[in-house]
Amino acid sequence: MASTLLDPIAFKLGPISVYWYGLILGSAALAGLLIAMQEGKRFKISQDFFMDLLLLGVPSALIGARAYYVAFKWDEYKHDPIKVFAIWEGGIAIYGALIGAVICAIIYVRRKGYNFWRIADICAPGLLLGQAIGRWGNFMNQEAYGGPVSETFLRDTLNLPNFIVNQMNVQGTFHHPTFLYESIWNIVGVLLILAIRRLRFVRAGEIFIGYLMWYSIGRFFIEGLRTDSLAYQGSEWMASFMNTLWQPMTAVFEAGYLDPNYGNIRISQLIAVVLVLVGIVFIIFRRVTGRAQARYLDPIVSTKADAATSTATDKSAAKTVQHSDHAVAENRANEKKKKDEQ
Question: Which residues are a 1,2-diacyl-sn-glycero-3-phospho-(1'-sn-glycerol)-binding (predicted)?
Fold first, then answer.
């Protein structure tokens, strides 16, 4: 019987195999770039600025994502360290990618003289769209899925097409397509951002923080369905708190299995809760203390550009003064010459 699974290899160039996983991640990055560049035009920011940011941000994100994942799965890599670099086999963490990308962006944006929050706001919908597209790489690799479900649930309840249902059949057992849940959640978030950022009351930084909060809320509940979560052994009260927050989901879904010997707290859920709480406090604090004066729709200006313009103006003024002084001296010389001739 022929396999109904999709081939993770898109095509081959001689001995080199090109995986769908890499192509999808590349497409995700490109889609995010195009959205950022389009919005950047409204603020008169060079497209080269965003292209350079992508060229620096993507490797930073991949390094952060892989390092984050490997750090919590070191037992699987310590005997074969070379496998650490096999990212085409999957095994990267979104939160690690965000950490790597944000660190890179803070350095790059400040060197260019821009305010980080203003640029982060512009990039937020592109990041979320990139994550929505990137989850399909997990789909191709048959990873990041949820707990067991019936084929009937996938076909009749969710009305999923055959290619998704078949791909969710992992070694004879059908699973929750958590990649799809998260992808849809992220796309809805993109649409919300595109609508909200045009409102006058939105302050600088709030779009990016809102993006983190939106993603984290969805990730918290979807993560509870997964069976491959990164986890650690935490306190019982913390584990009970997390389970209580996830409790509303039990009305419809069953939680994914988490080996108690591996951990009792899903790391992504913990980070999601922290990001939502910190995001709320951050927005309130900046508003109350008056630090959120700039609005999203306000012009964006680079301090380096101002400095360059000021320097150019000063040089032009200096040249004008020099020319003027030279002209005055020349006139005086001509007048003296006329008097001498007389």
Answer: 135
pTM of the model: 0.86
Please report which confidence band the pLDDT of residue 331 belongs to, taking 50, 70 and 90 as the band edges. Answer: low
Cβ atoms 9, 17 nearer than 8 A: yes
Its sign, for the CA torsion 53, 59, 62, 63, is negative
Could you state, in order of their start, the residue ranges of all structural domains in the chain?
Answer: 9-301
* pLDDT higher at 87 or 269: 269
CA–CA separation, 278 vs 15, rounded Å?
48
Which range, of 9-23, 50-64, 78-92, averages the lowest pLDDT?
78-92
Helices (H) and strands (E) in the chain, counts: 11, 6
66 labeled part of a ligand binding site: no
